[in-house]
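Continuing from the previous page...

OK, I double-checked the sequence for Cadherin-7 against my notes and this is the correct one:
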Amino acid sequence: MKLGKVEFCHFLQILALFLCLSGMNQAELTRSRSKPYFQSGRTRTKRSWVWNQFFVLEEYMGTDPLYVGKLHSDVDKGDGSIKYILSGEGASSIFIIDENTGDIHATKRLDREEQAYYTLRAQALDRLTNKPVEPESEFVIKIQDINDNEPKFLDGPYTAGVPEMSPVGTSVVQVTATDADDPTYGNSARVVYSILQGQPYFSVEPKTGVIKTALPNMDREAKDQYLLVIQAKDMVGQNGGLSGTTSVTVTLTDVNDNPPRFPRRSYQYNVPESLPVASVVARIKAADADVGPNAEMEYKIVDGDGLGVFKISVDKDTQEGIITIQKELDFEAKTSYTLRIEAANMHIDPRFLSLGPFSDMTTVKIIVEDVDEPPVFTSRLYSMVVSEAAKVGTIIGTVAAHDPDASNSPVRYSIDRNTDLERYFNIDANSGVITTAKSLDRETNAIHNITVLAMESQNPAQIGRGYVAITILDINDNAPEFAMDYETTVCENAQPGQVIQKISAIDKDDPPNGHQFYFSLTAEAANNHNFTLQDNKDNTATVLTKRNGFRRQEQSVFYLPIFIVDSGSPSLSSTNTLTIRVCDCDADGIAQTCNAEAYILPAGLSTGALIAILACVLTLLVLVLLIVTMRRRKKEPLIFDEERDIRENIVRYDDEGGGEEDTEAFDMAALRNLNIMRDTKTRRDVTPEIQFLSRPTFKSIPDNVIFREFIWERLKEADVDPCAPPYDSLQTYAFEGNGSVAESLSSLDSISSNSDQNYDYLSDWGPRFKRLADMYGTGPDCLYS
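Thanks. Re-ran it with the corrected sequence; updated C-alpha cells here:
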C-alpha cells in the first residue's frame, strides 16, 4: 500500500500544521515492504516513504466520526476489486474502515489517560477471491493529549511540625501534586506551586513544593498551630491552566525557651507533730509554659534548718514538688522549720540561655502543731528470756513508757491478749513488770511475741504499743525415741552377724551442745539368742542376727526392746520396741513373702485365675438380678377387674342431676347436720375399723338397719379382698338417712309420718308453693284428709 498524490498533498499540509501547533495533527499510514513481496503475474515494487502511525486528538466532542487517516494499496486501481479490513485493539468498536476507500474513522470519544495508543492491523484483500493482495500491516494510532486534567495532591491533606523559634527558611514539609496529562507533550503536566493561605508565616517553593518558614521567632506559647492552603497549577501557572489545592496543618513543636517560675516567693504550712514519717507535708509547683520534657523540673532543698527532717521529690505526672517528713516531729523539741527550695529545668537548650537562668527559688515555712500524743516506750522492741522450768509468777523483765507531752501523765500497762491468747504472761499495770502466768513448754512454742499497751491515766484513748519477744530456754524434759517407725525384716536364710536394721533416735529437746544418744538392749532382751544390738557411737545403732535358721512356721514376728538414753542433765531414757518380721527372700536378700499364712494357700491358682473366677461369679449375680427384675415387672396388677374398680377413676358428667331421688349423682352426706361434731377420722396406715355411719337427727329415730348392714357387707368385702388397694384408700358410701336437718320432703314419707310439723306457712309463700301447701297443709281443703 502507498499514499496517493492527493492524499500525499493533504499529508504535507497536516504535517506543517502539526509542527506549528506542537503535535495537534493527524497522520496517515502506509506500509512499506522491507522485504520483496512477490505476487503471481506481478513484479516487485519498492516504497520511498515509510509511515507506521496515526495521530488522533483526545476528547473529540463532534457528532460525526473523527477522520483518522487513509490506507491505500498500489494494487488498488479504483475499480472496487480491492477491499480493506481492520483488526486489532478497538477495531470495529472504536475504529472503523471504509472497505472500498480505506478511510479510517474514530466513532467514540478517546481519552489518553485511559489508553495512550492502539495497535491495529490492516490488510487489502481481493474482493472476488477474498485472498490478500499484500501482507498484513501493523500500525499504531497514538492519542494526542490535551490539557483536560487538573493537578491532584494524592497524599493530602498534610500535617507537619516545625520547632518554634526556628529561623526563616526552615523546611517544614514538601507537597507534591500529580497531573494525569502527558508530561512529554506541551505544558499540560508542568505544575507550579503557590500559597493561598498561611502568609506571612510560611512560603512555598514554586517548582519543588517545599514549604518553609517565612517569619522568625514564631512562639508556640502564643500560637501553636497554622492552617495553610497550597495551590498547584499546570501550564506553568499561565492563565487557562487547571489547578488543585490541598491543606497543610503545621504545628509548632515546643522547645525549652521558658524558665520555671514560682507563683509566690514564700509558702507556709501547718502540720501536726503526730504526722507519721513519709507523710506528705505540702505540694508546691513552679509554673513553666513549656510542655513535655522541656517542662520537666527537679526540686531540691538548698538551705534551711529542716534539711535532715524533710525531703522534696518531684511528681513525674504533675511536675509538683512533694515535701515529705524524714524524721518524727516533736512540738516540745522544735515548733517550726524554714526551707529554701529551688526548682530548675532538667533539659536546658543552650540557644536560649540568654533568656535568663532556667531555675527559681522560694521559701517554705513549716509550723509544727502540738497534739496529745500517746505514751512512748523507751525501746521499740524488748528481748527477754525465761526457762521453761520457771514457776508461775517468775519475773521475766520490765518495760517502761512515758507521756511525751508537757503534762507527763502517769502511764498504765496491759498486755494485748490477741497476741497472748493462752494467757501465759501477766504485767503489773503500774510498774510494767512481766511475769509468767502458766507453765511454759519450749517444744510447744519457743518464742512468744507479745504486744504491751501503755495508756495515759488522764486520757485512756491515747495508747502506745511496745513489742516484747520472750525466748523460752530449753531444759531436758523429753526422752529420746525412734526417729521413725521401722519396718524391719529378717530373711529365713539369714546368717549370724548379718545387719538387718540401722536405727537412730530423736529428742524434742534442744541442748546447746547437740544430742548424744546411747543404745542398748533391755535387761530381759540382752540374753536372747536371735538378735543383738551394736551402738555406733554416732547417735545410731545396728541390729544384727545372732543365729541362722529363722522359719516363719515356727515364729513369724520377733519383738526386740531397745533402751535409748540421752546426754541431758539429768539424762532421760525410753524403751522402744522394734518389730522384726521373718520373710522369704530371694538370692539377693530381698524379701518376697512375709506372711506365715502363705504356706497354707493352694499352690495351683495364680492371681489371674482368681480374678477370672471372681469375674464369673459377679457376672452370674448380675444375670440373676436381671431375671428377677424382669419377672417382677411382668406380674399383673393387684386390681385386675377394671369394670368393678372405679375408685381411682374420675368421671365427669355435664348433665343436670336427677333431683332428690338420684342418690348416685352426688354425695348425700352433704345433707348432714354441719352443726353436729363429726367422728374422728381413722388413720390410713392401720387396718380400718368398722364404723357405724349414722345420720344425726333432731328426733329420737333409730338407725336404718338396712343401710347399716349394707355398709357392714361392703367393709367386710374390702377387708378380705386380696386385690383391694391398701388401707390408705378411701371408701365412700352415700345414703339418705332419716335425720336430715331439713327433714324429708317426700310425699310418701309425709303420709306415713307421725310428724306434728305444721306446714301451713307454705300457703303464704306464693303460688309456686301452692302444690306443696295443698299436699302438706292441714286445712279443710287438704288433698288428703
